[in-house]
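Practice problem: predict the structure.
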Amino acid sequence: MNQANMSEALIKALIKQGINPPEACTLSFQKQFKGSTGIEWFAQGADYEAIFYKDDLEYIALFNKNGHLMEYRRIVPQGFLPHAIRQLIAEKGEIMNRVLLNRGNEILYEVIYRDKGNERYMMLLSDLGHVMEHKKL
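Answer:
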């Protein structure tokens, strides 16, 4: 194999390639996320991940091979975090990213913030603002 072909093969290996999931996944997806656009599927171990847009928000949904929706994540627009969470993070620094995580009907929020020293942290919180995980990135 010449150098150009090796480079092309390496690039293809590094780029995550979209796949066609089992029919059970696509049927479940269509039922749960009707009206979605820009849908791309990827293998995640034995599971299947769909990245898509719905109502102009980006989502990531994880299905098992039988089509069961295990969890989904979506970006939370600025100003839409629950008040208790906004207050808690405001005391610590500036919010950089907000993600809602629905895992089996448990709603969690993953927030990345930057403190006054420009250090970044990730905080996982319940919908009531209870800290479940807090770590420096």
